[in-house]
Amino acid sequence: MNPIPKPALVLHPRNRHQGRYDFEALTSNSPQLSAFVIANPYGEPSIDFANPAAVQALNRALLKTHYGVEHWDIPKGYLCPPIPGRADYIHYLADLLADSNGGTIPRGPAVRVLDIGIGANAIYPLIGHAEYGWRFLGSDIDPVALASAKSIIESNGGLADAIELRRQKSADHILLGVVNAGDRFDLTVCNPPFHASGYEARNSSERKWRGLGKTRPGSKSPTLNFGGVGTELWCEGGEALFIRRLVQESREVYDQVYWFSTLVSKESNLPEVLRVLKKVGAPFVRTVEMAQGQKKSRYVAWSFLHASAQRAWHEQSR
């Protein structure tokens, strides 16, 4: 296994969101954002990141300005992801593919990516297709999330051929029932449910609200600024169990995916993830740390393809 590199101090070099947001450009491209722009304590333009509507308006402006997404919306309460961090994951995965491709990032629709849990926002396919021209299959167990993702795809010309959707019908499976015979994916991306229960998710939400200096008197269910419902935020056993199941199922479709990957938000879960990967016999494992300001995260990638299988994969992809 490769040693864990030290975390980056800044976003990935190809990430479009270096430095402060350019609110002049963002509001010019998306005038709706103007209603939410305020001055921070230093007199600089910003938004109230504790306001879900403001965060959603910012995301809409970022997607339009940087990724050409003209129409983007999500149902009330669904996860509204921080785009710079999501973009980092995509760029680091592009580097992973380059390592397996003679140092050159493979681009275009020949590269197929499985987004496990595409959610209502479809953020990874939107960024990955805009940046690298990759083709995506997005899976989810939530029909409302899939309907939202479908609406985003249909509202933006050119995405119908780039993003396919498939429902996971079984709560007991992640890959099985989604990866069909004959499917081949160069990558999987996954942002697992973070919490082990709805109670844990609510407590975390309350702590984050307090950290933002906000209180919601009388509210029994605080709304997190980035939203999130049900399967987006929690599953039985939390992130650790979800990733363990993902790793175990990956062994069943080992020759249909070049690189499996998943975010591991809780650093304390990393040793268990690496232990399970060793147990299933994954010969190639990478752990890549990422940082966005003070927030640190990482992804783990693994492959079951030995040298001869890698050569055959690349020959078939040409």
Automatic annotation (TrEMBL):
EC number from the UniProt entry: 2.1.1.181
Gene Ontology terms describing biological process: rRNA base methylation
Catalytic reaction equation(s): adenosine(1618) in 23S rRNA + S-adenosyl-L-methionine = N(6)-methyladenosine(1618) in 23S rRNA + S-adenosyl-L-homocysteine + H(+)
Pfam families: Methyltransf_10
UniProt record similarity statement: Belongs to the methyltransferase superfamily. METTL16/RlmF family.
Function of the molecule: Specifically methylates the adenine in position 1618 of 23S rRNA.
Protein name in the entry: Ribosomal RNA large subunit methyltransferase F
The encoding gene: rlmF
